């Protein structure tokens, strides 16, 4: 069973789904270095734990998913080089092989938006506000902000957000392609958990392979992406889960996938 050792990062495991909650609502769930280290530890633990097949990531309270890095903690770095080589929660979450669903409640600003964009699926509350405000303070995002926005929202919409630093609302985020669904605040976490539960019923190797293939397709030339997909398909086809899936289909019964 996955557990947290840091009270500002909560973890609950419901069957094969892990729910991670950034738990600093009084500071809009801004992430400290200690929280970043805990998220890194949890990401490694989840990758190694076969009992977890999907993850939901959200923020405590109604006001904020995450306002990004705690700006007051940035002055702790003794040099720009130390800042460059810090343990970064965005890097850790990007290394998760399991699917991640972001339940975006309230503000997703700066590193909070990057955190949401790292997730494979994003569901937003009607109260959500998304922004890349770093330019207002004299820097830019460093957790993949530009690449994620350009890929998902298109160059013009990405530029609109990156160059103004102004927030967009949930419906605009939906129109830009930054989120998949917009639901009421009351529906947000139940919808994210239900979606994660569906994903958790699928064969784990195929799910992790599908995620890896999708990410690779963003950077590969088309012919290489097709060849890579065929190779991954062949690997999946050789698993016990694939044999179970074929048998269950033939026998008209529910499949029992083991992750082998």
Automatic annotation (TrEMBL):
Matches recorded under Pfam families: ECH_1 (PF00378)
GO function term, MF aspect, one: enoyl-CoA hydratase activity
Gene3D superfamilies: 2-enoyl-CoA Hydratase, Chain A, domain 1, Lyase 2-enoyl-coa Hydratase, Chain A, domain 2
Gene Ontology BP annotations: fatty acid beta-oxidation
CDD domains assigned to the protein according to its UniProt record, in alphabetical order: crotonase-like (cd06558)
PROSITE patterns in the cross-refs: ENOYL_COA_HYDRATASE
SUPFAM superfamilies xref list: ClpP/crotonase
Reactions catalysed according to its record: a 4-saturated-(3S)-3-hydroxyacyl-CoA = a (3E)-enoyl-CoA + H2O; a (3S)-3-hydroxyacyl-CoA = a (2E)-enoyl-CoA + H2O
Assigned EC number: 4.2.1.17
Origin superkingdom: Bacteria
Keywords, alphabetical: Lyase
Entry similarity comment: Belongs to the enoyl-CoA hydratase/isomerase family.
The protein's name in its UniProt record: enoyl-CoA hydratase
């Amino acid at each position: 069973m996955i557990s947290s050792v840091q009270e500002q990062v909560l973890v609950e495991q419901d069957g094969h789904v892990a729910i991670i909650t950034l738990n600093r609502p009084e500071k809009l769930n801004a992430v400290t270095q200690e929280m970043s280290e805990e998220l890194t530890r949890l990401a490694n633990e989840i990758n190694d734990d076969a009992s977890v097949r999907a993850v939901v990531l959200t923020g405590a309270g109604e006001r904020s998913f995450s306002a990004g890095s705690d700006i007051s903690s940035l002055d702790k770095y003794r040099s720009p080089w130390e800042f460059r080589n810090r343990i970064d929660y965005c890097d850790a979450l990007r290394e998760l092989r399991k699917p991640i669903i972001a339940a975006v409640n309230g503000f997703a600003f700066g590193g909070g938006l990057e955190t949401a964009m790292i997730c494979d699926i994003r569901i937003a509350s009607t109260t959500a506000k998304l922004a890349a405000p770093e330019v207002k303070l004299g820097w830019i995002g460093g957790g993949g902000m530009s690449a994620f926005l350009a890929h998902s929202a298109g160059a013009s919409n990405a530029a609109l957000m990156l160059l103004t630093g102004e927030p967009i609302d949930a419906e605009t985020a939906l129109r830009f392609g930054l989120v998949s669904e917009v639901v009421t605040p009351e529906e947000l976490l139940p919808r994210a958990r239900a979606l994660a539960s569906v994903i958790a019923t699928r064969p784990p190797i195929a799910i992790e392979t599908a995620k890896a293939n999708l990410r690779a397709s963003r950077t590969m030339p088309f012919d290489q992406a097709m060849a890579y997909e065929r190779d991954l398909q062949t690997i999946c086809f050789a698993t016990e889960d694939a044999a179970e899936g074929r048998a269950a289909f033939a026998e008209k019964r529910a499949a029992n996938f083991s992750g082998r």
